[in-house]
Amino acid sequence: MWNRPRFDLKVRLTLRVAAISAACFAAISAYFLITADRAAHARIDGIAAIVAKTLELQQGKVLWAASPRSDFPNLDPVSAYVMTPGLCLAFRGVGGEMLQRFCSGAPIPEDPPPQIFTAFYHSLFDPGREAARPVILRGTKLGEAVVSVDPAVQTAEAWHEAGRLMLALAIALPLLCVLVYAALARALRPTRMIRAGLERIAANDLTARLPPFDLAELSAVRDVFNHLAESLDTALAERAELTRKLIALQDEERRHLARELHDEFGQSLAAIRALAASARQTAAQECPSLLGECDGIARTATGMMETLRGTLFRLRPPDVEELGLVASLEGLVAGWNGRSRGETRFSIRFDGSFETLPATISANLYRIVQEALTNAAKHAGATKVSMELTMHAGEIALAIDDDGRSTDRAAKSGMGLLGMRERVAALRGRLSFEAGPAGGSALRVVIPLAAANPPALEHAA
C-alpha cells in the first residue's frame, strides 16, 4: 500500500505562514515599485509642464520686447531648479528636430542592480519614457518640451527601494518563522498527551483519560476521547462477562459430556472386554478357532478405552487449582509425549513464580495450552513443539512455537483458535498467531495480572 509522506504539523503550518508572509512582502514590494514608477512619471510630467511654460514665457518676452536678438529656446534658467542626476531637458521643433538638449550626469551606483532585476523591471515598466508638453504661443505650436530620465538611474532607484524591502524580509521572515513555530509547538503540546492516550487505548489500557485543555477544539477532542474510552471500557466489560458465561457454559457441557462418556460408553466398553474374556475362556474349551476373534474384540475394546481416556482427559482436565499450574502443564506435556510415541517432541519451560497465580488465569492458561498442543499435533503435523511461560512486569507471557505446516492452519483450527481468543479476551489479554521466523507457527499470548480482579471465570473441575 502506498503511503503518503508525513510532515510535522508545526513545520507544515510554519512553512505555510512563511509562504503567505513572503507573498505579502512580494505584493508590498510590487505596490511600492508601481507607486515609485507612477511618482517618477508624474514628476517628469510636472517638469515637462514647467519647462513648456518657461519656454512660452521666454518667447512671449521676445515678442513683447521686439528684440531682434533671440536666445529662444534657453533651458539654462529652468535647469538650475529642476535638474537631478540622470535628468534630460530638451526642446523639439515642429519638424521633429531636437533644437536644444541638456542632460545632467548620472553617478555610477556603488551597488548596481542585478541583471535579473533589471530585466524584470524593464519587462514590467518603461524606465526612460519621455514626457512631452507642447509649447504654444498665441495659438501657434512652437514645438515640444521633452523631459526624460536615464533608465539606469530609474532602475537603480527602484532597486534601492526594493532592496530595503528585501532586507526587511530577510530579517523579519526567519524571526517570524521562529515565533510561529514556538507558538505552534506550545499550542500543539496537548497533542502529545492525546497521542499517548490513544497508544494506551491501543494497548488495552482503557483507564486512560485526558485532562482538560485550554483550547476549545482540543477540549472537544478530550470530551469525545474520554466518552469513547468509557464506552469502550463498558462494552469490553460486558463482552468479557458474556464470554465468561459462554466459557462457563462450554465447560459445564464438557463436564456433562465427560460424565456421559464415562458412565455410559466407558461401562459398555468394560462390559465388552469382560464378555470378550468370558467368550475366550469358553472358546478355549469348546472352539479354539474362535480365540483369534475373541482376542481381536478384546484389543479393539482396549484401544477404544485408551481413546476414551484421552478424550475424557481433554474434556475434564485435572484440578489446576489443586495441583497448581506448573504441575498441571507438566502433566499435560508428559501425556502428549507418551501418546505421540516419539513422533512429536513436546517441551515446556517456566520462568517465574506461579504458585500464587489466581485460579481464573491458571485454568484458562491450561485450556489455551491444551488447545494449542491439539492444533499443533492434529493440524500442523509438527515434530517439535516448544512452550515457554514467563511472568514479569505485571503480566504473564505464553509463547508456543512449532515446526509444522502453517498453510491453512488458521482455517483448520478455526474453532480452537476462536476459543483461545475468547479466553484471552475475557482476561483482557492479547493473542497473536502467525508464521514463525524459521517456519512453522508461533502463538503469543500476553495476559495482565490485573485480569485476576474481574469476577472469577468458571472452569472445569
Automatic annotation (TrEMBL):
The chain crosses the membrane at residues 13-34, 165-185. InterPro entries: HAMP_dom, HATPase_C_sf, HATPase_dom, Sensor_HK_TwoCompSys, Sig_transdc_His_kin_sub3_dim/P. Residues 185-237 form the HAMP domain. One of its GO terms (cellular component) is membrane. It holds the Pfam family HATPase_c. Keywords: Kinase, Membrane, Phosphoprotein, Transferase, Transmembrane, Transmembrane helix, Two-component regulatory system. SUPFAM superfamilies: ATPase domain of HSP90 chaperone/DNA topoisomerase II/histidine kinase. The keyword Kinase applies. PROSITE patterns: HAMP. It is found in: Membrane. GO terms for molecular function: phosphorelay sensor kinase activity; protein dimerization activity. CDD domains: HAMP (cd06225), HATPase_UhpB-NarQ-NarX-like (cd16917). This is Histidine kinase. It comes from Bradyrhizobium cytisi.
